[in-house]
Amino acid sequence: MMAPMIDDGTSPFGSFELKFSSMDKLADIARADWDRLANPPERAFDPFVSWDFVQALEECGCATTSTGWSGRHLVCLDSNDQILGLMPLWLKSHSQGEYIFDHNFAEAWHRAGGYWYPKLISAVPFTPVAGRRFLIAPNETQAQVRGAMIRALEEIGQQSGLATIQINFPKDEDLIALETAGWLLREDRQFHFFNRNYSSFDDFLAELSSDKRKNLRKERAKAQEGLTIVRLTGDQIQEEHLDHFFACYQDTGERKWGNPYLNRRFFSLLAERMADKMVLIMAQDGDRWIASALNFLGSEAIYGRWWGRLEDRPFLHFELCYYQAIDEAIARGLTRVEAGAQGGHKLARGYVPVSTWQASWISDPLLRAAVSDYLTRERAAIADDSQWLAERMPFRHNVHQMDMI
């Protein structure tokens, strides 16, 4: 996959040519080159766009052509072949593992005689975490490089005859640039916990209404009854812990999706590479591990990713996935907990609604118009739902509640 050279005359240094190519595997891009742009020191660290995380998905066979994720990672170079921008990019033959559902678009386009697949998608597979998708050094040329990369994607889409290119969970400058370029934006919602400089879980509870505070205390007491709960990180995480975690993950995955996306080797490879960015929360009944939740650490947030249980205990999911993550965020001085996709039940437990986004380029004008109309109506429904949620926030202070949305 190649895009034409782009002459960007808007650069503060004058006109310069940018070249684009793609790599099928992240292993073909030097780790240092990727991470220099994915996690520069000026930016908050994001574990999910690190070379260690994304390449592990490929190396372990979780995100490969055989699973419907064919790597087409975009590389932007200057005339001296210096890498200025990178993007995790995949040619997809389905819409699984994205946490944004476009099956209705695919079916409608198929009925009209078109082909929705294959599609290009920029995302971190199986990871609904908002983050940077245009991996560009934060310098004076970043806006020009980002704009050139957007145009290169559109050229690739046109030349390849694709119906759509999607960028999942973009944020900040990426989101603004895509909207400015005319890409269609689709809004969704997650629920995050925000740490208002709490020194303890009780400080957080003090900001809740009395009924919510009492309910949370009861839930925690019931969930912990008869159990030992531990939080492991770094070299505390051993293979035996990962064995137990994976058994729990498989049980939940089989019940939810029928076939879990990730394999056992993936978690071992992560522990080898980035154990200091992992927090494994486990519940033990006597000598038996019965539930676990795996989290990842950024420089600003803790991210809840995968959970599972072998025994059904009241409120144990809430304890391991929500309350223990809050404890960890407070202990580490992190600003928030992102506990994964969806989950309106998180609202009563101190997690508040935030918007997430998908940006789409669509080649056919009629299809674009139809999707645009659908998204307009969908956003209106989300706005109505947001008002409903705002009226049911769990906090005592109304100003604090509205500032969170």
TrEMBL record:
<dbReference type="Pfam" id="PF04339">
    <property type="entry name" value="FemAB_like"/>
</dbReference>
<dbReference type="InterPro" id="IPR016181">
    <property type="entry name" value="Acyl_CoA_acyltransferase"/>
</dbReference>
<protein>
    <recommendedName>
        <fullName>GNAT family N-acetyltransferase</fullName>
    </recommendedName>
</protein>
<dbReference type="InterPro" id="IPR007434">
    <property type="entry name" value="FemAB-like"/>
</dbReference>
